Automatic annotation (TrEMBL):
Protein family (similarity comment): In the C-terminal section; belongs to the class-I pyridoxal-phosphate-dependent aminotransferase family.
One MF term in the entry's GO annotations: DNA-binding transcription factor activity
Protein name as annotated: HTH-type transcriptional regulator NorG
Annotated HTH gntR-type domain residues: 10-78
Superkingdom as given in the UniProt entry: Bacteria
UniProt keywords, alphabetically: DNA-binding, Pyridoxal phosphate, Transcription, Transcription regulation
PROSITE patterns: HTH_GNTR (PS50949)
PANTHER family, sorted: HTH-TYPE TRANSCRIPTIONAL REGULATORY PROTEIN GABR (PTHR46577), TRANSCRIPTIONAL REGULATORY PROTEIN (PTHR46577:SF2)
Stored Pfam families: Aminotran_1_2 (PF00155), GntR (PF00392)
Coiled-coil portions: none
């Protein structure tokens, strides 16, 4: 078929992609032909199955292969337009969807330091169970869809919780959503049109980046710093691209863990006012922050800022309950979009969440969770540094640390090796705008207490820098 060269500077994944493309272009593999199975190809060429998975997924994204469930991969029929689009267009489909699919498909990997959720025993399971028992004892109307904006008592509670953060709003300025992902998708569809320049954190949140690309946005990166944003670069890119909106995560940013300081928040709002910029503030980790920091929404009072939050990170990811708080005109449009795309959100999940949040032990749970994360932050940071890793920031709170090692040029290679050892890592290219190879890795400190992880990292970096 074709040979692979492990000594070549071209990554093995790219060699496989290029090899199949040439066979298809030359007519050796005709449309409808079945490709070797992933395991067959891996065994025949002496490479990891994860390397082949990576390459086959890229070939699907480029339009050369089509995947048929339970049957395998087949050569796809192509025309000139498909060929041109695949060669000229950005190759974001594989990488973004790899993150969305593989992270959840690989939940069965024993160690998950690259994931984006908390271990089940760190969540408020007892509160959810008590809420479920109380809800089961009530007469709940199962015959309707619920309120368009969501369960009213929970919206009132969100209003009160935001008031504690000095964000003044009414209950009608709160829209409950199916997690923060739906909230961001609704806001993106309300604010972004094809061809619009949109500012985003760099590195940023893969789900959001994929959603914006799908809408046809031109993504303009705002580099993160340990204390917030590179404001000089931000101002220059505003002047150059005239964007209308910035999507950002000031607090406990994923993947870097960085926190924007007060001076940065003020300066960002000044730039927004001067240039007519709307800001979408993703604040889903607010409950993990032990410090009573101001938010962009508290400083702006929802004039230019749309504020997004979630209870999935601290109550339960399975409940999928998030919210948007915004200026009334914006919020009414979002509520209409929510109804168009999926009618109402689940009142049952919202009632269940409301019961957990009004449980007398909820605040005690949050205090304990913050302390537990602080301890894990310190322990993980120390062990990474002892192995020679450089830390982007040391927030001392939240789930994430962003780190790189001088011996690692491409964290994706390390991630595939880790998967063969039953370890899920978070390679940096997944969080980048251009999806280029990156040396950075995102570590979820809540999953970094197993010696098998540290043994693997020590072996992978032994005698190589640091």
């Amino acid at each position: 078929m074709f040979a692979l060269d492990p000594q070549s500077p071209t990554p093995l994944v790219q060699q496989i992609v290029d090899g199949f493309r040439e066979l298809i272009r030359a007519g050796v593999l005709r449309p409808g032909a079945k490709a070797p199975s992933i395991r067959q190809f891996a065994h025949a060429h002496g490479v990891s199955v994860y390397t082949v998975v990576d390459a086959y997924d890229r070939l699907v994204a480029l339009g050369y292969f089509v995947s048929r469930p339970h049957s395998g991969f087949f050569v796809r029929s192509r025309d000139v337009r498909t060929e041109t689009a695949a060669e000229a267009g950005p190759q974001f489909h594989f990488d973004s969807m790899w993150y969305l699919r593989r992270v959840f498909e690989n939940r069965n990997l024993r160690l998950k330091p690259g994931c984006g959720w908390l271990p089940h025993d760190w969540l408020f399971g007892d509160g959810v169970r008590r809420s479920l028992r109380a809800l089961a004892a009530q007469e709940v109307d199962l015959g309707g869809y619920g309120e368009p904006k969501g369960y009213t008592p929970l919206r009132q509670l969100v209003r009160d919780l935001l008031a504690e953060q000095e964000i003044a709003l009414t209950c009608d300025q709160v829209l409950l959503t199916h997690g923060s992902s739906q909230a961001m998708d609704l806001v993106a569809r309300r604010l972004v049109r094809p061809g619009d320049a949109v500012l985003v954190d760099e590195p940023g949140y893969p789900n959001l980046l994929f959603s914006l690309r799908f809408l046809g946005a031109r993504l303009i990166g705002v580099p993160r710093t340990p204390w917030g944003w590179d404001l000089a670069t931000l101002e220059a890119r505003i002047a150059e691209h005239a964007p209308k909106v910035l999507f950002t995560q000031p607090r406990l940013h994923s993947p870097t863990g960085s926190v924007a300081n007060l001076a940065q928040l003020h300066r960002l709002l000044q730039l927004a006012e001067r240039h007519g910029l709307r800001i979408v503030e993703n604040d889903i980790y607010a409950d993990l922050d032990p410090e009573p920091r101001p938010s962009l929404a508290s400083l702006d009072q929802l004039q230019r800022v749309v504020h997004i939050g979630s209870f999935s990170k601290t109550v339960s990811p399975n409940l999928r309950v998030g919210f948007v708080a915004a200026h009334p005109e914006v919020l009414e449009d979002l509520a209409q979009l929510k109804m168009i795309s999926g009618l109402t959100s689940s009142e049952f999940a919202e009632r269940l969440t409301f019961g957990a949040l009004t449980d007398g032990r909820w605040r005690k749970h949050l205090r304990g969770l913050r302390q537990r994360l602080a301890g894990a932050q310190q322990a993980t940071a120390e062990r990474l540094q002892r192995l020679g890793f450089e830390l982007f920031a040391q927030p001392g709170a939240g789930m994430f640390l962003w780190a790189r090692h001088p011996a690692i040029d491409n964290a994706s290679t390390l991630a595939y090796q880790a998967a063969e050892h039953d370890i899920l890592l978070g390679p940096g290219h997944l969080f980048g705008l251009d999806l280029a190879p990156s040396p950075w890795l995102r570590f979820n400190v809540a999953f970094c207490d197993d010696e098998a992880l540290w043994g693997f990292l020590a072996s992978a970096t032994a005698g190589r820098g640091g």
